[in-house]
Write a structure and sequence with these properties.
The protein is mainly alpha-helical. It contains twelve helices and two strands. Residues 41-93 form the HTH merR-type domain.
Length: 233
């Protein structure tokens, strides 16, 4: 974490009065949440948990309210096992001045309900322009549908954030092919398990697949960070 902060330009590390950089937020939160990383912070932003300010250069700057919102969200996720969509709705209610009851983990269901949104509801929830969604569909990042799930919402929110900096869906269309190649690597690594039909092997494969995907994500993140370091040096 210290090394990452050292590579951050001085202009980015020096936050306006009362605002914190990513490194400062991590320094305050990682004692209680050791697994927290800058990537996780960015993911929480994409999920709508927090919306930091941006400097003219595009660096994130967090207020004390952002910090407490993050602390509460991470606590709810760690101690109450709540999904982020439930946490976000709860925090939005608190921010609106209401006093919502503490959300509870819904009982397990063989057929859990999946929230579906119409096109207009998706655009509204993501804060996206219709053309951005059209571009996401035409480039293959999203599939055209009558209703969209939470994963589609998370992706569109990420595209909205990128679009603010001139990165359009057409610029990241290759990431779909890259994702498919990574899945092929995971499938190859688990080929022995996938050939088995017993429940134990299938359960182990279900646990192993996300773990392998996370490690591939770590590798990609490190390579991107190294490339950014060369760019900014």
């Amino acid at each position: 974490m210290a090394a990452a902060a050292a590579r951050e330009p001085a202009s980015a590390r020096k936050a306006p009065a009362g605002l914190l950089s990513i490194g400062q937020v991590l320094a305050k939160l990682t004692p209680d949440f050791p697994a927290l990383t800058s990537s996780k912070l960015r993911f929480l932003e994409v999920q709508g948990i927090v919306t930091p300010q941006r400097t003219a250069s595009g660096y994130r700057k967090f207020s004390t309210d952002d910090l407490e919102r993050l602390r509460l969200a991470l606590t709810l996720q760690r101690d109450h096992y709540l999904p982020l969509v439930v946490i976000r709705d709860y925090l939005d209610e608190v921010d609106a001045g209401r006093s919502p009851a503490m959300p509870q983990v819904p009982p397990p269901s063989i057929h859990p309900a999946v929230r579906r949104r119409t096109r207009q509801e998706l655009l509204s929830a993501a804060g996206a322009a219709p053309q951005l969604l059209n571009d996401a569909v035409s480039t293959g990042l999203l599939k055209a549908a009558d209703h969209y799930d939470d994963q589609a919402l998370a992706l569109l929110r990420a595209l909205v954030a990128l679009d603010r900096h001139g990165i359009e869906p057409r610029h990241v269309r290759g990431m779909r092919q890259s994702a498919e190649r990574e899945v092929a690597l995971v499938e190859s690594a688990m080929s022995a398990l996938l050939r088995r039909t017993d429940a134990a092997s299938r359960a182990k494969a279900s646990e192993l697949a996300p773990e392998l995907a996370a490690r591939l994500d770590d590798v990609r993140g490190i390579l991107v960070k190294e490339a950014l370091g060369r760019l900014l040096s």
